[in-house]
Amino acid sequence: MAQSSTKKKPFAAMIVMGVVSIALYTTLLMKQDVINSTFAQGGWYALLPIVVAFIFSYFHGGFTGHFWTVLGVEAARKKREVK
Amino acid sequence: MHDIATSFINLDGITILYLFGVGFVGGLVSGFIGSGGAFVLTPGMMSLGVPGLMAVASNMCHKFPKALVGAMKRFKYGQVDVKLGLILGVSAEAGVLYGAGIQEKIKATYGDAGSNLYVSVAFVVILATVGGFVLYDAWKTYRSGNANSEEKAGKLAMWVQSINIPYTMVYFKSINARVSILFTIPLGFATGMMAATIAVGGFVGVPSMIYVLGAPSLMASATELVIAFVMGLGGSLKYALHGMVDIRLAMIILAGSLFGIQLGAIGTTYVKPFMIKVVMGLIMVIVLFSRGLMVPVYLSQLGLIDKLGDTTVKLLKNSSFAIMIFALLLGAFIVLRAMWQGKQAEKLQHALGALEHGEV
User: Fold this and answer.
1) Residues 63-92 of B with CB under 8 A from A
2) Do B59 and B19 touch, CB atoms closer than 8 A?
């Protein structure tokens, strides 16, 4: 990433991750009543928020990472290793 | 469960934007110093009408995926010691459970005001000692003109590294030495207890990695994200078992904080290591004043001092919350400014290099 000034910007990956991310958030807000009542049951349903958090972090995390790269906000080119 | 289900708040556009914004700033600071944000997020959610426990649970549920993304990002920069993070994280989990137990006992014995007083006093005492020391150390480094040189382990860390206890020694790459896990266990435990008490374990975790174990600031703050992931995952599961997580709140905060944490992580590659201590120390000291303002309120509620008037209580509460937000915003501002300056310096260096090579 650091040496990427000449690298192609990840537009396609950002758009794909962004679209999935928007879809996930739209579903979450549209179906919030069902989701809340299901997740509030606890017990084995406790795994649902954990799984949902992992899924959101994968897609939205990927999107935000590519978002900053596309904007040109990247790590410094030197001192990547701090040891 | 019915009670929990009916305590979900209604989300409107303003609320969503507010949670997204606070999440972004909290994420930015977390990506940089390894923790932070929770001390504003939890009371921030409660101010929207979210019950206390649900606010804590939802904060936890946004924390572990955020920490995971931040840790992965900083791992790419060679800043994460996964082994140290996991070992500290497991003992921190035990600390969280113990700390939560203490909290419950205090609440059962002295009520909400007693519990709040305990949290505030813990905040003030720990932030005053640890935060003051971190800030003093950063200032000393700045004044000595050694801000650019590689960090060296202090006397305490050298002593800890010199102790050899058979069958307990583990090599950690961040420290580049073998350290007994009999030292790491209490540090992790204390980090967990802090997370359960004041919601920000990193205020103990990061300084203890730096000053007790001898890890460089950048690696300590990055490794804290692994600890936060382990603690957050365990804590979320614990609360989710009782149906306490409001996944909508957690994911909206996560939406903002993932933008922030990526930026904060990138920021660490532009700054001198002592800047981690500056940001962390400043936030700790400012938050200390914020919590200190609330101590008279709780003392008054417990009847230990004369009763305060409603206007005074309201003023103290609002001032306390405003100071906390200021602490977070100041941290974010320093991170962004340091990043901007680093980026400009890099551009200048690049331009000078091009000139020297006759490319321009």
Assistant:
1) 64-66, 68-69, 72-73, 76-79
2) no
